[in-house]
Design brief:
alpha/beta; 14 strands; six-stranded parallel β-sheet; Rossmann fold
């Protein structure tokens, strides 16, 4: 059987880094790990091709001789997904769909796809393939089972050109012990974190290493430290493997802020090569944290926790939200102060939205406040429910935050607040690709740039070179990020 796997185009967002990628000569930030993993579940005798629409266009010739099309997508890919399904219909091809978008909104696609294989593919894909082999596939496959990840196959990296991407990806665990009201992770993967074995993780890293990759990798776990006991065991083995390979990768992941309470775990992660963490910091408003069930953030000095992470060698990527029922009009200035004081350079601030079937979604529906579906992009200035605060004031205040924190002067100040606290564990040299990217920053930001952006580029350049030489690479990378974030801010 000949099959075509399609990963629809992602919208331009905060995390797409669309305006930063040209500096490093990459086509997309990350590969489609989910559908590459699903590809590893398909029969070995099948002829498989994959089109990631984020690196190349889907063409009519891609459908030639294809017996079955598989489509996987997230909420942010909804528009492109609808276009893909329309194209498949025009080409007369049967389509199998799965992934977060379809699992969250199955009714929206029941008439647009031939087969919906939802929830976790280790369970439902197996059932679909068995029925397909018998010639009797069903329309819908769902399961409440959260499988042991020991049965998860290696991703099919051979189906893509890894050099198209800035960062490769790996998954260690699924599930999160917390249950924040606005988050859909527990709906998708449950509250009991399931963790792969050290053997699996090392095998996946070996596969990427053997493919020739050196550089950044993202552990896509929704909470990497959800099962601390097992993660510590894996990190010990990861440290040994990384040392044996002369530390070929640097790692980023997502974690809850209670990591700050475990110095042993912080040290193990740093020694293993982790140098960046995304943390949902959300808000300095304790009442809003309680409202959304973010208890792990409550009753702690969040700025102090961030500073400790930075001193341990981590750059913190922060997620922030405005629009909680408990927010008043002081939240806008408080968020700006919170972000600036902590030195979180990559600060994603979004308006609160209610993703499908989250606790927040159900509450808004019960209160007759739900007005639309979520776009999947909480930084596009939209909301899908009626807020308690006047909506115009909320949106105006939100825009004020974004305009302020990514203005060249304020951004520059935040970079150096970070650098003052930052203590990198490993010295980072520049490979050929990084040198080329650095030269591009000089030309495009330092020479062709204009106004304040150009001035603060050179101010950062000189100041970092004189006073933060060991973090010079990070400082220049942040100038590129600032360029991207300012471009994104103009849409809001």
């Amino acid at each position: 059987m000949k099959v075509l796997l399609i990963y629809p185009e992602c919208e331009t967002t905060f995390w797409s880094f669309e305006y930063a990628l040209p500096f490093v000569s990459r086509k997309a930030a990350c590969p489609p790990l989910g559908i590459l993993t699903v590809a590893g579940m398909l029969p070995e005798e099948w002829e498989i091709n994959l089109v990631d629409m984020n690196v190349r266009r889907l063409k009519t010739r891609d459908f030639k001789g294809v017996d079955l099309v598989f489509v996987s997508a997230m909420l942010i890919q909804r528009h492109s997904t609808l276009e893909v399904l329309k194209k498949c219909s025009l080409e007369g091809k049967k389509v199998v769909v799965g992934g977060p978008l379809f699992t969250s909104c199955p009714d929206d696609f029941i008439d647009l796809a031939d087969y919906l294989v939802l929830n976790e593919a280790e369970v439902t894909m197996r059932s679909f393939l068995e029925d397909l082999k018998k010639g009797k596939p069903k329309k819908l496959y769902t399961s409440d089972e959260h499988p042991d990840l020991s049965i998860t196959p290696l991703p099919r990296w051979d189906l893509i050109d890894i050099d198209d991407y800035q960062t490769l990806m790996i998954q260690c665990s699924r599930g999160c012990p917390f249950n924040c009201e606005f988050c859909d992770i527990t709906n998708l993967f449950g509250r009991r974190p399931r963790v792969k074995s050290s053997r699996q993780i090392i095998s996946e890293l070996e596969a990427v290493y053997d493919a020739g990759w050196r550089g950044p990798m993202f552990f896509v776990d929704d909470n990497f430290i959800g099962n601390k006991k097992e993660i510590k065991k894996i990190l010990v083995d990861l440290i040994s493997w990384m040392d044996s390979k002369d530390n070929p990768f640097t790692f980023t992941t997502e974690a809850s802020v209670n990591l700050a309470d475990d110095e042993e775990l912080i040290d193990l992660m740093a020694r293993a090569g982790f140098d960046a963490l995304f943390i949902g910091l959300e808000t300095p408003n304790e009442a809003s944290l309680m409202e959304c069930g973010k208890k792990q953030n409550c009753k702690r000095d969040l700025v102090d926790a961030i500073k400790r992470f930075q001193a341990s060698g981590f750059q913190i990527l922060g997620g922030y939200i405005v629009g909680f029922d408990s927010d008043d009009e002081t939240i806008f200035s408080r968020q700006i102060d919170f972000i600036q004081e902590s030195g979180v350079v990559t600060a994603m601030v979004g308006l609160l939205n209610a993703p499908p079937n989250t606790r927040l979604w159900h509450r808004m529906k019960a209160e007759n406040r739900l007005i639309d579906s979520s776009s999947g992009d909480n930084t596009d200035g939209s909301m899908n429910f009626v807020p308690k605060m006047d909506k115009e004031k909320l949106i105006e205040g939100y825009r004020g935050i974004i305009k302020t924190i990514y203005s060249p002067r304020v951004f520059h100040e935040r970079v150096f607040t970070f650098l003052k606290s930052y203590n990198p564990r490993r010295k980072k040299g520049m490979r050929v690709r990084e040198v080329k990217a650095f030269l591009k920053t000089i030309f495009f930001l330092g020479i062709l740039g204009n106004g304040q952006s150009q001035w603060y580029y050179w101010k950062t350049f000189v100041r970092a070179l004189l006073f933060h030489r060991k973090s010079f690479t990070e400082a220049m990378t942040m100038m590129v990020y600032g360029h991207h974030f300012r471009r994104i801010a103009k849409r809001i």
